[in-house]
Each structure stands twice: as structure tokens, then as C-alpha cells.
Amino acid sequence: MRILVCVKQVPDPNTVIYQIDPQSKRLVRDGVANVLDPGAEVALEAALQLAENDGNSTVTVVTMGPEDAEDALRRALAMGADDGVLITDDGLAGSDTLSTAKALAATIKEVGFDLIFCATESTDGYSGMVPGMVAELLGIPHLSFIRSLEVANGVLTGQRVVALGYQTVECPLPLLVAIASGSHEPRYPALKGIMAAKRKKVEEYSLDDLGLAADSVGESGARERVLELRPVEERQAGVIVEDDGTGAAQIAALLRQRGII
Amino acid sequence: MSPTVNIYGQVLLFLVLLAAGAFFAYRVWRLYLPLRAAQPVVRRGEVGTQVARVGKMVFGQSKMFDRPAIGVAHFLIFWGFLILTLALVQVLADGLIHGLRLPLISSHFYTGLNDVLAVVVLVALAYAAYRRKLIRPRGLTLFADAWIIIGMISAHLSSLLLAEGLAAAAFGNHDPHWSLAGMVLGGPLSALGPTVTKVGFVAFYWIHILLVLGLLLYIPLSKHFHVFTSPVNVYLRGDKPKGTLAKIENIEEAEHFGVSNVQQFTWKDILDGYACTECGRCTNVCPANLSGKPLDPKKIIVDTRLSTYARAGMQMLGRTNDTRTITAETPLLGEEGLIKDEELWSCTTCMACIEACPVAIEHVPKIVDMRRNLVLEETRFPPELTKVFNSLERNNNPFGLRARTRADWAKGLGLKILSEHPDEPVDILYWVGCYGSFDERNQRVAQSLARILQSAGLNFGILGTEEACTGDPARRAGNEYLYQVLAQGNVETLQSYGVKKIVTACPHCMNTIKNEYPQFGGDFEVIHHSQFISQLIKSGQLKLESGVDKKSITFHDPCYLGRYNDVYDEPREVIGSLGVQMTEMRRSRNKSLCCGGGGARALLEERVGKKMSHNRLEDVLETGSNTLAAGCPFCITMFEDAIGSTESSDKVAVQDLAELVAARLPAAKTADEPAS
Amino acid sequence: MAAIWVYSEITAGRPAPVALELMSKAAELGEATVVLFGKDAAAAATVAGQFGAAHAVIDPREEYDTHLAPAAVDTLAALIRERQPALLLFATSYDSRDVASRLAARLDCGVISNATGLEADGDGFRVLTPWGATTVAVCELTAPGTKFVLVRPKAFTAVENGGTCTVEEVSGQIDAASTAIKVTDTVEEIAQGPVLSDSKVVVSGGRGLGNADNFGLIEELAAALGGAVGASRAVVDAGWRPYGEQVGQTGVTVKPDVYIACGISGAIQHLAGMKGSKTIIAINKDPEAPIFKNADLGIVGDALKILPQLIGEVKKG
After folding, report:
1. Contact residues, C window 70-129, toward A, CB-based 8 Å cutoff
2. What is the pLDDT of residue B672?
3. Which residues contact B255 (CB under 8 A, 6 or more apart)?
């Protein structure tokens, strides 16, 4: 079985600070390490376990990003993936979810697959759009929020998390599955894996290789635009007040503002 | 009268000795082979030091007297047996060549000493038997092996005395004023008549010879092999700094990491196994063992030995306490193995075991070697460590806090950050460490120490955000690769600023930089802040205001300061200079009981048994002191936790030495109230 | 009036609660049409009318319940191509994301996720999405055709106006390939609140609560907020709470939208496990407690006094 795992490099979610640069209108990443998305690690773990049980499978990790996204691929290779694919092109910078999905789908068609794994959502963007889009563009079904799975006779059976429990689902391959975060405990790479990862093959694809027009993706192909940035109303971060009887009300106000109540 | 009677007896004795000697040599050879096949390690030290150590630990039995009764008994058995063995040489010489008298050991005095010691050793053995049967001390292995030895030696000595008495009865006391056995037993035994006493003499003579030869053959398969191996082991300990772990050279090219079978140990590790007497002193001082964890340091050593024997095609005898079947195929580690993962992960690397061992066995490096295998090869470790390793990799600290915020604690203090003043070299680098940098509690320690250094008018600086974890928790958790990456980076940073002298409030950082960075070409003078403050006070550079306060202090010796680096006096000198009441804990200095935080344990959950920090807190509370002086951020963190969860904050407060001193800086006499 | 469509999931025979919020908002901004697929579609349409939908397009076949997103996408794509509404709203939920993402790819539409606000802007719409805790990005979809927006729950208020809607039944063309997925079983698991590590809201307690019994307040607040209960190491060590609830370096790492720390001082051990939270609220008696350095809102006061009031506020809504 040829298993592909779509992964993403993200700013370390443990240390990211939610500050926006007003100029670029992007998240401030200064001093924050880039890491393999923890959600992608979970998906990769699920894929590796399947491949190990199957014994006759290869696992290829695919990512789209700047050149240094290769670091995320190397981490995935150290965990045990067999080889990697890096889609990188200046023209892809600023891609929205659909453009990202198009680049991924075009690459995946080139690479070939039986089964694709994704995280349900990335830890930085958390839109959860890319898995379904990639599946649609490839013309295959997709199952989201899968927490456990097995493949027998070309049919995948799994448990899909829903609000009050889970559904048992089945679907013949080829197929894309998005793995629920927290469903698998990602392995820490063994040192041999780290060393072997340095020698594993990473193939690069550019827009030309994929036959994608530069204006259909990236900043120029984006279907949305940020008009302005507004500070969240009413209060600044880091307010410490003495409780004068209104403490509970102040907390409630903040919870309402955050859409929790 | 010679006991071998005639030439046939002489030849028989010769053949028996030859056979026993050859068989003994064969067994020792079989046990030598694993040493030869083991990994190389250079354990060289200054000969004088090593001989002195052997003198102290072997001939002086220095570590034995922590338990006075058995210490004295063992001392007597050791010396008694040593002298009796020489007497035996004379007896055998006479048996082989009638009338041969060797110098010294054939003297009258020696004959007398011989008999006295035989009795003394018998009494000591009786005590040993009593202790095993009735006292049954914690940590001691109670099994047949010991009884076999006690029985054989007792029988040997009894038959020696009997033979001598019978000889006196049969032939007249050959040494009338010195042979005490002859004098005491000769008279009564002569009642048996000449034939019986003659035959009896020859019989008991042979019995005593055969018993001692039997003992010789038995010993290599017993814990009593230590009579041969422990002096060698003590000598070969070498003089490497006590707490230094071996570097895995060329780690990127290595095929195997750490130890998963005994052949991957060094010969010194195998020899440690041979030297073990199974006395259990290590187990009795192990903070993990004392708090109900599955770790038993003695078992670790014994298991490596049993595995070595099994792989050499031999079996140890008399192990009636151990129901396991151990073959050459039995793995050392894992679920099916001799040593379970949980045992290894329970270790705090506090080195109390090594300190307590009478025969210089080094438990901790073996445990770390096996952890290395679990981490680097098997990736089998407590899940909390994943977070630690990832954070160290990404943020240079184990907490996952942003590396860029490392120097935030120093904001507004006017400290010199080296990268901001590249042209102004400093005399001293203050190495802050992760806890001092990121942990709010220990930031107060860092701020105190900074004020002290400022008050002494020193030209010092910090690395700021360029500082990274020394790698100590990674290394001691077995992640040697991550450690090497961090160590390499830090050595380069330190060298780029031409740093020569480093002061730190963290004994773990101190130990790593001082004793382990030389493995990466980093040679720095590193001292603990207690040493530095003590010097500054003595030299008059640091002036403290005298104060009358209600503090009563007890000091907890951090493992990595005391046992690892032999710093015991300076912290006490610093406390002394404060003019407050100081009470020592029941277990202090080199016997200090670990807080539970070392060996990356502070970053792991303590799931089994009692918390180690709670055990130590009991020692603290026993002193009735209202202030626990500490000198290590791990200790402070563990004790703050322990005080919190045992609701003891009304009884005692933890203060770092730097905080105690900073409170006495001129014009800084605030917040110096005792806890109660 | 702009035609605004709402794709609604059906739970227990009714439109999902968040879909009702969307319908009310759609009615406010234009003419609301609800799309309902599955065997309970007709019943759900009646409810939709009461919450602002003017029209309902329903396809009450069971295929949609067993084949999941691909089947719904086939029917919905045909409807959108044919009728071209200005805006199509989805909930940010498990199933709706699957439908929205496939549909957007099929129709080559722009899509904005995680919206918390929606404003009319001439003929178009402006979409508000939170960027971190302190900033809201105002975006617009620039591609031609129907705009897709996925909205987070609680962004809008469902307003019951007692109205009714027209109901149009359609029978969409479901491609054979779109029935590959089969749901063979649905298992309801005993709801014990969300899993700590995944919960969007975490309410944690520490020693400042005084004793184990007072943890009831933490449980009550967590339940009211639909969040999970967390604990500091000190109270786990003290045996008040199980280890599974321990947040921190050696316990669970959490990254909720809102973290409420009650009576927790915030030692490094705790901080290491929750500093990734988007909003941190702290209640502690000690104004010097380190937790305040990391809090977005810190109340210096007695948690035992504030918690019951807060629970009251939350239950009020």
C-alpha cells in the first residue's frame, strides 16, 4: 500500500504569541521555532502504525511551504516515513486553503497513492478545509475525525468521532482520512531514525513541475482579502483587578466576548 | 608432627592442591573472558591515590562502619581471615615438606595470633549468623549463599582448632606457650586415647584443608568472590570526577546506543558486578527505594552479574531468594528482561548508592547507559519526556517556554548581557540556568544572586537569550544526542566570549559545565554560588549587615553539589556568616537524602509510592527549623511542592542561600521574616 | 435582498442549534434559505421557519445520513450552480466542514472559516475572524460567485420569531461514487464532558480552594461552560483529584480557547502545561501569584466567593 501523509510546518504552538504584525497582517513569528504540526504528527503516527501492521507499505510525507519546511519533513522521516515530497515555490506564498489543496492534489496525482492521511486541522490555521478539498480535487471520498482504523481487503474500517460518540464507517480505497487530534500518541524519533532521515530522499516540486499557473495560486490567486485589523473590543490584555464584588461579572463579560457564553 | 604423615600424604596433598588450584584458575578464567570481551574504557589514576584508596576502603574498611556492629564484625573477619590465610600457608608448607618453616608466619607469636583470631572470627561469624537469622536488616539479601559461606568458614576454623587440640593431645603441645588451642583443648581431648586423637588429628587436618579448598572453588560462583574482586575494583575506580558520564563518541555514526545486553558494558561495569557483596547499603540509602519505587540499585548490579554469568555459561550458587531462570538468552531489559523500565526511570542519579558502596561500585552510569538504550534505540520512555525533549530541542529549556524570554527576569536590574557588550569582557559569567531564567520562584534566587554580585562590585555578565539548557536533564534521561547538541552549542557560545570563570546557582549546571564540558573541549573554572559568596565574605568584598532575626536554619545538601562535587563546607560557612542558629538534619553532607528532582525526575511524574520530597521534608521538619536553606533550583522546586501539598508552610519555608544573603545586603533588609 | 443560504445539520429531528443562530443572522442580513438533507429534513424545516428561515430546500432521503459529505455535496453543488445565492453559511462543525470544503473545491469558491461576525457591506459582506486573543481580522471574499463562510457556534444569537417557511422538496442526483462511504453503526458514548486535552474551555483548581470538597465549584463551572476540569499538581499530590486531571509539565498539556485558573499560584510546573491557552483568566487571593503575569484577566480575590457568582452569571447566559 502506498500511503501519503500531508503534513505542515507551523510555528511552535507552545510558544506562539498571538500578535499580529499590522504591516504584513500576518502572525508575528519572531523568535518562535517552526515545528512539524503536532496534529500532523498524530496523523503520521496513525499512518506509520498502519504501515507497520501491514508490513508491505511505504509512507511518503508531503508538505507545501518555504524551503525550510524541509525541516518538518526531516522530522517526519526521522519518525519513520520512507521518503518525502516538498512543494515549494515563491509563487505559492500566501496561498489560501483552496490553492494549497490544488497544489497538494496536483502533486499527489504525480506521486500516486492508495491512502492519504491528514490532520483534521492544522494547529495554526485550524480551518479544517484542506483535507476535504484535496479529496474532492482527487475525486476520492474522505473521512474526517477518524480516531482508529484498519484496512482489510482494500476496505478501510474506522471509528469517526461525532458529537456524542462515534460512528463506525467503512469505505473502499482509494481514500483520504483526516485523523482526530489526540487519537494517537506520536512517537519520539529514535536516534537511528534521526540519522537515517538525513539520507532519505526528499523530492521537490515547483509550480512548473505541477503545471499550475502562477496566478491561480499564492497571493495573486487568493479568494479572500484582509480589509482591516481591529483590536478586540473593550479590554486590553493583562488586566489585573482587585475583586470589588464585580469580579465574576467581569469574567462573564470576557467569556461572552469570547463567545463561550 | 607433620599431618601428612608420610610421602603418600605429601603427594596426595600436592595433588589435591594442584587440582583445586587448577580448577579455581579455570573458573576465574571463564569469568575473565567477559571482562576481556567487554567495551574498553580507560580507568587510570595516580597510583598513589589509588593505593591510598585501597588502603582506606579495603584495609581500613572505611565504608563498613556506617553500621557499627557488622562493620566491626566484618573488619575482624577480614583481618582475621587475611592473617589466618597466611598461617594456612605455613601449615600447607609443612604438609608438603615436613619441617619447612617459613619466616615470620611460623613464629610463636603467629601461632598464638592464629588461634586467637580463629576464635574471634568464629564469634564474628556467629554475630553475622545472628544478624541474618534474627535481625534481618533491610536491604540485605537473605539466601543460602551466605549460609554456605558462614558454614564452610566456621567448619574450617573449628576443624583447624580441633586438629591443633588433637595434635597436642596425641603428640604433646608442639608450641607449649603459644598454641592456645593446644593448651585449652589438648588436656581434655587426651582423654580420648592416643589412637583416636592421632586419627582425629589427621582427619580434621584434612577436613580443614578440604574445606578451605572447597571454599576457594565455591567463591567464584558466589557473592563472596568479592574477597578477590573488590580490592581490584577499588583500585581501578581511577580518578575520573565522580559524577561524569561517558560521552558516546561519534554518536552520529554509532550502530548501537547505550546498553541492552551486558556485553555492551565496559569491563569496569562487569567487574563492578563481580565485586558486589550484596550488602544492600546502596538500596538502603536509595531515595527511590526508600519511597517505594521499583528501583533497587543492588538488584541492578546483581542482575548485570547474573546475566554475565549466564552468558559465560556459568550459574551462581545458593541463590535461593531468586526464582527467576536466567539463561544466556534472557534479555537484560524489557518486559521479558531482568531489569524493567520502571526501575531505570525511578533513579534520580543522586549517587547515594555509589557513595555508600564499600567496594566502589558505580550504579548510576549503568542506569544511564540502559536509559540511553531505551531512549535512543527503543524510544521507550515516560511520556512526559517527549515534551521535555521537544522543548529542549526547540526552545533550549525543558518547559517549552520561548527561548527569547530567557533574560526577561533580568529586566531592569542593569545586568550586562554579553552579546550587547562584545568589546567589554567580563571577569565572571553568571550562568543562570533554566529554572533561574524561567521559573518565577527561582527567578527570585537569580535576582538575589545578581544583587549580591553587584553589591560586591564585580564585573560580571550573563549570556541572556544565548544561554541554553546545559543538557543535564537530557543526558541523564538517556538522550545523549540531544545533550551533545546542547553542550556543543553552549561550549561554542562560552568560548566565543572568552569566558574563563563561571558562577552558577544550579549544581546541575555546575556539574555539567565543570565535569562534562571538557569532553567537548570546554574548560572553564566553574564554582557554585555558595563557594563564591563564601569567598567574597571571607575576602571582605561582600559586606553583610549583621542582623538579629528569628531564623533557625537547616541546610539540605544538594546531591550534585555534595556527592558529585564534594562541596559541603562553603554553604555552611555562608549560613555561619549570617549568625543564625543552624541545625543539621539526620542525614546530611554525603548522606544527604535526595529531594527527588535529579536525573530529569523533576520533569517526570512520581506515580508510585511516596513522594521522595515528602520523605526529605520529614527530615527537615524533625530539626524544628523554620527555614530550609537550599542551593539548587531542583531542590527548591521539589520542596516548594512538598511544603504545599503537605500543608507545611506554617512550619518551614525554603530559601536559597542567595536569598538569605541578599536579605542582609546593606539597605536591603526587607522580607527577612521567618516562616512562623 | 441578498439570498443567504444556510446549510443545516439535523440533530434529534431539529436543525443543529448553531444552524438556528445562522438562520437568525441570515434573516437579519437578507432572505434566509435553509438547506436540509436527510430523513428528518421535513420536520427540521418547520423549526427553521420559526427561527428566521423564509424558505427551506429539503431532500428527505436517508442516503445523506449514511453516506456523509460526498452525497450532500452532489445535491448542494447542483443547487448552488443553478440558483447562485450570494452567501452560503455553514457551522464550524464536524460534518459541515466536510461538506463546505468539498463543495468549495468543486465550485472553485472562496471560503472563510472560523468566522465570529458577519456584516453587510454594500452588495457584499464582511467577515470577522479572530486572530489570537487581541485582534479581529475583517475579510472579504473576492472571487466571483457564491461566498462560503463557516461560522463558529455562539457567534450569533438564535432568535425565535414564530415564523414559517416555504418548503421545497428536491431530489438531488447522487453520483454512484459518492456513496462509497457507509456508516454502519452509531455509538453514543457516555458523555462525561469533553476530554481535557481537547477541550475548548478548561476550568482548573488549586490549593487556594482550601479543600477537596470545594472542587465541586470547579466541576459546576466547567459543566456550565461545557468545559473540562483541570487541577494543579499540588492538589493531585494531595489526593484531591485524579492524576488524569493534572495540567502541567508532568501532566496534560492543554491549549483551550479559555483557561480559568482558580486558586492556582502558577508555578513553572503548572505554567508549562497551559501557557498555550488563547485566553487565561486567573482568580487568586495573592496579588503576587505568578499566574497573574500570564493572565489576560486576573481577579485578586477569593475563588470561593467569586465562583458561585460566576456560575450564576454563566447559567444566566
Report:
1. 70, 73, 92, 94-95, 97-106, 108-114, 116, 126, 128
2. 45
3. none
Q: Are B300 and B341 in contact (CB under 8 A)?
A: no
Per the structure block, which three cell numbers stand in for B127? 554475630
pLDDT of residue A21: 67
Res B328: pLDDT = 94
| Strand positions, DSSP E, chain A | 2-7, 9-11, 20-21, 26-27, 34-36, 58-64, 83-87, 115-119, 142-152, 155-162, 165-172, 175-179, 202-205, 224-231, 239-242
Which residues of chain B register pLDDT less than 50?
669-676
Amino acid at C81: R
| Mean pLDDT value across residues A81-87 | 97
The shortest C-alpha distance from A59 to chain C (Å) reads 24
Q: How far is C60 from chain A (nearest CA, A)?
A: 21
Q: How far, CA to CA in Å, does B577 sit from each of B394, B455, B650?
A: 43, 16, 26
How many CB atoms are located within 10 Å of the residue C117 CB?
Answer: 18
The letter for the amino acid at B674 is P
Q: How far is A116 from chain C (nearest CA, A)?
A: 15
Q: Does B456 touch chain A (CB under 8 A)?
A: no
> Mean pLDDT for chain B?
92
C124: number of Cβ within 10 Å: 15
Q: What pLDDT score was predicted for residue A234? A: 44
Q: How many residue pairs bridge chain A and chain B with CB atoms within 8 Å of each other? A: 47
**Total number of residues shown for chain A:** 261
Q: How many Å apart are CA A230 and CA A132, to the nearest integer?
A: 31
CA distance A211 to B252: 40
- Cα–Cα nearest to B309, from B241, B217, B223: B223
Spatial separation of the C-alpha atoms in residues B596 and B606, rounded to whole Å: 9
Grid coordinates standing for B391? 522543548
Amino acid at C249: Q
DSSP string, B545-585: -------EEEE---TTTTTTT---HHHHHHHHTTT-EE---
* B399 Cβ under 8 Å from any chain C Cβ: yes
pTM for the full model?
0.88
Measured CA to CA, the distance from residue B558 to residue B506 in angstroms comes to 10
- Provide the 10 A C-beta neighbour count for residue B671: 9
pLDDT digits (tens, 9 = 90+) for A232-260: 654 445 788 999 989 999 999 999 888 88
The mean pLDDT value for C118-138 works out to: 82
Query: Under DSSP, is residue B358 helix (H, G, I), strand (E, B) or coil?
Result: coil
The answer to whether B47 and B238 have CB atoms below 8 angstroms apart is no
At residue B345, the 3 state secondary structure works out as helix
pLDDT tens digits, one per residue of B54-79: 999 999 999 999 889 999 999 999 99
DSSP state for residue B251 in the 8-state scheme? T
Beta bridge partners of B11: none
The CA angle C185-C189-C191, to the nearest 5 degrees, is 150
